[in-house]
Amino acid sequence: MLKVDSLFKTYKNAKSPAIHDITFTVNNGEVFGLVGKNGAGKSTTIKCITGIHAFESGNITINTYNIKKNENKAKSLIGYVPDNHSVYECLTGLEYVNFMADIYNVSLVDRQKRIAKYSKLFNMEHALNKQISGYSHGMKQKICIMGALVHEPKLWILDEPFLGLDMQGMEVVKKSIIKYSKNKKHMVIFSSHNYDSVCELCDKVCVIDKGTVLEVLDMKQNGSRERLKKLML
């Protein structure tokens, strides 16, 4: 379970907080969406959860581990795919995924199985031994996802995962999100502007505007899609 409680974050020299009183819970086995306009606070919230950004007040707990008090343990449970799909472009795809596996102490046997599984799933088998600098945008995103999943994290976080992908790439990412969340020990969070994708994938959706939570919707309830559409306009 992920608990975000009364989260406040203010950037240096800013007159007002980027996010204030952000509160929500993600249960195991859920796909949780963060939606809102550009600058609403989605990426800031994600970067606080991952420990990239410090925050002034509030609490973030991942499977009982507080991100401030047990930083290393909490971070070890996260797999993060940033919106810019940043990777070490001087490495080959295989070198990059192995580097990520080393960081998370993934055994040789486990990493070989997972690299084989995900390279097949994302159609990256032909590209693993090629330098990342020569990859297309979509291929860079796929290798970034593979690096985030190689340790099979409890919490998989994706920031705007569908930007720049073709239809085939989007479908592969969607299917991987659904499949990953079916393991009741896993959670998935992603941010998006794509209404259809959010409705298709999410169990719950948190709508953020001007740094605060407007509403958390249970997408299984009647009328939730219509309500979401109004809030996203």
| CATH topology heading of the largest domain | Rossmann fold
Percent of residues in helices: 25-40%
Termini separation:
30 Å
Q: What is the beta-strand fraction?
A: 15-25%
Stretches where pLDDT is under 50 for at least 5 consecutive residues are: none
CATH architecture tag of the largest domain? 3-Layer(aba) Sandwich
Q: Count of DSSP helices?
A: 8
Q: How big is the Rg?
A: 17 Å
Q: Provide mean pLDDT, rounded.
A: 94
* Tally of structural domains: 2
Described by strand count, sense and barrel closure, the largest sheet is: 6 strands, mixed
Please count the beta strands (DSSP E, at least 2 residues each).
10
The general outline is globular
SSE succession: EEEHEEHEHHHEHEHEEH
Tell me the CATH superfamily of the largest domain.
P-loop containing nucleotide triphosphate hydrolases
What is the CATH level 1 assignment of the largest domain?
Alpha Beta
Textual characterization of the structure:
The protein has 233 residues and is α/β, with parallel strands linked by helices. It folds into two domains: 1-77 and 154-161 and 186-233, P-loop containing nucleotide triphosphate hydrolases (Rossmann fold, 3-Layer(aba) Sandwich), CATH 3.40.50; 83-152, no CATH class. 36% of the residues lie in helices and 24% in strands. It has helices at residues 42-49, 71-76, 93-103, 108-121, 137-149, 167-181, 195-201, 224-232, and strands spanning 2-9, 19-26, 31-35, 57-62, 65-66, 78-81, 155-159, 187-192, 204-209, 212-218. Strands 6-7-8-3-9-10 form a six-stranded mixed sheet, sandwiched between helices. Helix 3 packs parallel to helix 5 (137-149). The longest helix is centred in the last third of the chain and has 15 residues, at 167-181. The mean pLDDT is 94.
